Amino acid sequence: MRAVKNCLFCLKTIFHYVPLHTLTAAVCFFVPAAFAGLQVLVLQRIVDSALECVEQNRKLFQEGLPGVESLVFWGVFLLVLLILGSTMQRFGTYQMDLVSMKLKERMAPDIARRLTELEYASFEAKETQELFQKMSGEPENGIYNCSMSTFFLIQKTITLASSMAVIFSISPWIGLGIVLVGIPMMALGYYAAGYSVVLTEESADARRRMGDLKRLLTDKHAMYEMKLFDAKALFLEKWERSSGEYVDIAMKENASVMKVDVASRLLNVVYLVFVVCMAAAGLLGGSLTLGQFAAALNAVSGIGSSLHDSSRQMTWLMGSAMEISYYMDFLKLETRGDLGSVETLPHYDIGFENVSFRYPGTERDILKNVTFYIKEGERTAFVGENGAGKSTVVKLLCGLYEPTSGSVTIGGVPVRELSPGLRIRCLSVVFQDFQAYQLTLRENVAFGCLEALWDDKRLLEALRLAGGEELALSREEGMSREKGMSREKGLDRNLGKLEEDGQDLSKGQWQRVAMARAFVSQARYVVLDEPTASLDPLAESHMYENFARIFRERGTILISHRLASARMADKILVLDGGRVVQTGSHEELMAQQGLYRTMYLVQSSFYQEGKDAPGEGESVPGEMANGLEAGAERGRK
Predict the structure, then answer these.
(1) Is the pLDDT confidence value at 619 over 90?
(2) pTM, entire model
């Protein structure tokens, strides 16, 4: 059974990470559970001893009388059991609180480490994204909850077993009757648990949609567009539809659970009536003593409560076990088991040889037999329409994907065989979809080269080259800058809204921070995937001038839709339909009647004031109003 397998997995996991506290908690929970049967026996002894004293007409405090001594002994023993059981239960709860804290502390790093070891393709797969959503981001909570439910169920099972042993010793017929009624009660509880899991699965899509809508309704950029386009009504309608689906499923679940609960309680009434009648018949017939009669009624009450609690706990356990299924599926995701070990290279030339690639789970080749070579220190640009395969080239070069066929090499060695350290020394990448880290400015820039984390001079120079030096100034310095009173600092300021004193940035400012990572890096090649998409034309022109100056001694690989910026490259590769259709310098490509010339003329025409797009073969003046082309031209010199 999958639920049992998942529960065993949870127990194994929790014992692996927090063995001592978990073992202590288990002892503290399970030992007092066995006291239930002992307490029933002790109650019987107390009642029988008291009855013996009354029958013999003795004084309760007469010294040396065996009946009184027995009554006192069993009374003290019962008191000790109650105190010891309560103390151990409380200490066990305290131990499980420690388990919860230590489990998060010790398990979270392993989860994070595994996430970093996953193949990059896993993160782009729809199934994986759904799996992450189902995990809810905190599988350690699911492990803990499932373990606690399992412990509780085991505890109730021990309580039932010890109480039933006493009942069978008193009257086998009463014990058999309890078993016959108790089995249907447990079966009903198990049915309710299974049905609840099925409904939870059915509501998963609705809950995910509600989660996504909630994120959109609290995201400032999404809300800006909603207000601008007056789309609030549309989103609220979607919310109501998704929440309505979820409520309908929840109502079905509640109705089912209620029916099962009513049936279980009716069985409980039948069970109590049966036990009372059987016990009364035994007492009146002389087969049971008054102590046994009292003990049987006391045990029956505890057994009924345990059966009901166990049924309810089974429902919770099944839900927790299903959450763990998602985590277990996560552990089965493919990881990079072949991390490279090559530490040195004879040279740093890049080669793509007959490379074809299709994304996992698709049937269309994004790249088709692509072959090109980039010499060490060469500045190369890739241009082409959307979907031509430009960003895919970058992902393959970085080793994020394995080519479907062909080879991608640096220095003649496949990139996936390079050690992580060597790969960092070879490549520094600024992606089109850069990440805005909710960390300090220092940490955001130093991601380009962690060795420079505490090198303020180097970090500030990188920010200056990226046009973001004002981000390293305090608010007071920014106000007094014109008075000559500023002094660069502020690298340790928090960015984003995570911290109370955090400063949120515009998209253009975040892009400057991302660009600074490229400037702080000392990698052999800097890969720029649409690096200036969020900058205005003038800032873009200055940025490319800085690029050309700083990367004159290093190789540069540029991915850009703006062909004017490609003029800074020594070599331009034009991609179309997943193939390299043209290769050459800007002048060489403009001299050809090909795709590059067509795209360049169309783009540059929009910078000519009062002039329509050129026709076939029509030339365009070289000056561009925004200075972008001029900046790129200066960068080539």
Answers:
(1) no
(2) 0.66
